[in-house]
Amino acid sequence: MAVEAVIAGHLCLDIFPQLAPGDLPELFVPGKVVEIGPVTLEAGGVTANTGRVLHRLGIATRLMGKVGDDAFGRIILDLIGQDDPALIEDMIVAPGAASSYTIVISPPGTDRFFMHCGGVNHSFSADDVPYDRLRAARLFHFGYPPYMRRMYENDGAELERMYRQAKAAGVITGLDLALPDPHGPSGQADWRGILSRTLPHVDLFLPSLDELAYMLRPGLDVSDLADDTLIPALAGEALAMGAGVVVIKLGNRGLYVRTAAHLPFAPDASWLSRELWAPIFQVNVVGTTGSGDTTIAGFLAGLLRGQSLEAALTSAVAVGACNVEAADAVSGLRSWDETQARIAAGWARGPLTIHAPGWQWDERCAVWRGPHDQGAS
Questions:
Q1: Within a domain: residue 101?
Q2: Structural domain includes residue 24
Q3: Scanning 14, 18, 147, 359, which has its CA 20 to 30 A from the CA of 40?
Q4: Contact indicator for 102, 12 with CB cutoff of 8 Å
Q5: pLDDT tens column, 194-233
Q6: pLDDT of 28 strictly over 60
Q7: Read out DSSP for 9-36?
Q8: What are φ and ψ of residue 337, in 5° steps?
Q9: What is the pLDDT of residue 142?
Q10: Which of 51, 44, 68 is nearest to 8 (CA)?
Q11: Are strands 61-64 and 5-9 parallel, antiparallel or unpaired?
C-alpha cells in the first residue's frame, strides 16, 4: 500500500504513575516514602499520537522520529510496532543518545503536570527527514518544534529548511506546535520571527490558542479574555504570514478554522475563504492525554479522504471526543467508518457560545460560520 501520510517530530515515552487523590501534597517532601500504584507506559508526542491515530483511521502512515539505543527507546519502538511494524521502519535510532521521556503527574481530580526530558529530540534536524520518501506521500506533518532545540535555535533555520525541502517534494505540509517553557531556552526564542519564516512553506497550521497567543502576543493571559475576537485576529496573522489553513485547538470549546482563498491541495471549493467553528461532541471524559494530537489526526484524515471543510472539522472533533473517553491517547479510538456512523446517528454536540459579533449557526452542518466566511455553505 502506498504511503499517504508521513508524521514526524517529537517522540517520547510517557510514564503515568498511578496516584491516589491525596498523594500530590506528599510527593515532593524530602525524606518521605509515598506508596503509589503501578505505572502505565505509552508512546507519546505528536509522532506516536497523531501517527498511530491516522493509522487506526485507515490512512497508510509512516512515522519519522528519533530515539536513543537505550531501554526507553526500545520500549517506544515496541509500543508503536505493536500497532503495525511498518510504522517504525523510518525511525532513527541514535547510538549513545538518551531517549525522551515525560513523567505525567495526574492525581484524580487535580490538573496534571509534566516533568519532561527532551533527550534525543533536541538533535532532530532537517537532514533527518528522507525527502525522497516524501515524494511518494501526500502529506508531511511535523509537530512540537518548541521541544526540539535544533528546530528553534538560530532563529528556526532548521525548521524553515525542513519545510522548504518538504514543499519542494510536492507534499501537503502540516505544522503542530507545543507550548514553550517560559523559563527555558524555548521560551526565549523569537517565535514570531520563526513562524514568519516558516509559514510560507506550511499548508496546514494547527496550534492551540495558548501556543499561538504565547508566540504572537507574549504576556497575554488568554484565560482572562472577555470575548473571542482574539481567535480570528491570530488566525488572520498566521494567514498573512503564509499559512494556507489555520486550525486553532480550543479544548472543550471545540475547533476553529480559517482558510485562504487559494489552496491548490484543497479537495473542493468548500475549503476556500472559510471561517468555521465546530463545537465538541458530548462524551464522558475519562482522560485528555493526546486529545489535541488525535483531533488533528481526524482533521488530516478528513482532508486526505476528500471531505468538505465542514465534514473534516466535524471528523476532527469526533475523533478527539472518542479519544477522551479513555485514559490514554489511543485506546478510546474507533475506526473511520465507526466514527462516521456515530456522527450520522445524531451524536449530540456540546453547548458553545461565541462571544463575538457576526457568527451564525449552520444547523445543517452543525458548525458556526464566522464573519470572514465567504465560501460555500
A1: no
A2: no
A3: 147
A4: yes
A5: 999 999 999 999 999 999 999 999 989 888 787 899 999 9
A6: yes
A7: E--EEEEEE---TT-GGGTT-TT-----
A8: -65, -40
A9: 98
A10: 51
A11: parallel
Residue 56, domain member (yes or no): yes
Q: Determine contact, residues 128/38, Cβ cutoff 8 Å.
A: no
340 Cβ partners below 8 Å, 6+ apart?
Answer: 315, 318
Minimum mean pLDDT range among 32-46, 117-131, 243-257: 32-46
Residue 41 one-letter amino acid: L
Least confident range of 27-31, 48-52, 86-90, 153-157: 27-31
Q: Is the dihedral of CA 149, 298, 320, 335 positive or negative?
A: negative
What's 325's domain CATH number? 3.40.1190.20
Average pLDDT over residues 48-77: 97
Strand partners of residue 245: 204, 259
Phi-psi region of 46 (alpha: psi -120 to 50; beta: other; left: phi over 0): alpha
Cα(317)–Cα(353) distance, integer angstroms: 17
Alpha-carbon dihedral sign for residues 271, 277, 282, 284: positive
Q: Is the CA virtual torsion 322, 335, 302, 213 positive or negative?
A: positive
Cα–Cα distance for residue pair 377/373, rounded to 1 Å: 9
Give the whole-angstrom CA distance, residue 92 versus residue 148.
15
Number of domains in the chain: 1
Strands (E), the chain: 5-9, 12-17, 39-44, 61-64, 66-68, 92-94, 101-105, 113-117, 139-143, 172-176, 204-205, 245-249, 255-259, 275-278, 360-362, 367-369
The string of pLDDT tens digits covering residues 301-348 is 999 999 999 999 999 999 999 988 777 667 778 999 999 999 999 999
Domain with 83 in it: 46-95+120-369
- SS3 state at 175: strand
Instruction: Reply yes or no on whether the pLDDT at 82 is more than 90.
Output: yes
Whose CA is closest to 269, among 126, 357, 374, 138? 374
Average model confidence (pLDDT) across the chain: 93
Q: Is residue 20 part of a domain?
A: no
Helix or strand or coil: residue 41? strand
Residues above pLDDT 90, as percent of the chain: 81
**Phi and psi, residue 339, nearest 5°:** -65, -45
